[in-house]
Design goal:
Length: about 400
Amino acid sequence: MAAAAQLLRGAARCPPALALAAVAGRRALGSAPREAAAGRRGRRAVLAAAGALGGLGLGLWQWQRAVMAAAEEDEKEEEELRQRFMAPPVTGLRELRRRRRELRSRMELLIMETQGEVCRALAALDPGASFAVDTWERKEGGGGISCVLQDGEVFEKAGVNVSVVFGLLSEEAARQMRSRGKSLKAKDGKLPFCAMGVSSVIHPKNPHVPTMHFNYRYFEIEEADGTKQWWFGGGTDLTPTYLNEEDAVHFHKTLKEACDKHDLKLYPKYKKWCDDYFFIKHRGERRGIGGIFFDDMDSPSKEEVFQFVKSCAKAVVPCYVPIVKKHCRDSFTPEEKLWQQLRRGRYVEFNLVYDRGTKFGLLTPGSRIESILMSLPLTARWEYMHIPPESSKEAEILEVLRNPKDWVH
């Protein structure tokens, strides 16, 4: 294939007859690999290319071998991608590969790979359970893949979702974005949008294994004059039932290393944002011990922000899985299990009252409610006026939730 392409490029600088042959051959070169495995159409493409290239001295058998080799390479690459995914992507795999230089395609490939990496890592920790893979379509445009593991030995509930949706932004969702300072100019009241992301919440059974959440997303809106606003958002955070300082340091240090690859200012900025964002106002405490969180990130450039998001997504498994391995066989008491259930109640309160992603999903027409509420635990508990004893382990975690700590300095 490379040899044929090289001959074509050379022929373009030759006399007109050869140049015309080169144009025809180049067109066939683009279509033949995609069609080579399609039987008669593929053979016609090969013969057309061979005819165009005959004047260039490239024999039919040589051209056939080049095309078939390219087709085999295509199929091999697609199979490798399929093995990394939990299900076929929302956008067709061939379409994603055809547009692989476009950021939207690269982001969809990233979230698909992240879903696969996390699901495989979690399944390896809980071999007696498996992920149910549920693909769904949104009639207004797009769809998603929900992967959920329930009632395992290690994980009570672990969900990893991918969604790629597009269409027209609802008035409620547009109002929510404008409240964050977005200047969105609609045409006849309509705002075309595209949103995609991967999100996960993992609720372990053992109260000594913390809950973990991550989400990485990309959003694009087309305004009335045709210009597009775009931004990224996301983060990874930890919600332990009991405080283990060694775990907290490992978690935050891993995220800091991912951030530091791009800018030393990012981790402290997004760590504080995480502490502020996951604040349960009516309780006066944070949901967990934080991590990183960012939203509306649209600078310095699309490529630089994408690379930052990619680094953060790749840090998910190493920041969390070692903690699960360390504690998943720890013994625990009924009292410790009760405290876990009470803390999960706080988790539910934040997600249903304050979380932006939950609100956006519920306000978007055609959203999949089951996937949005996947973040909620199977079990939780609320008790009237439950106050843990002073100097207890339960009181220790409450102190950190009310007064966040610096874990890496």
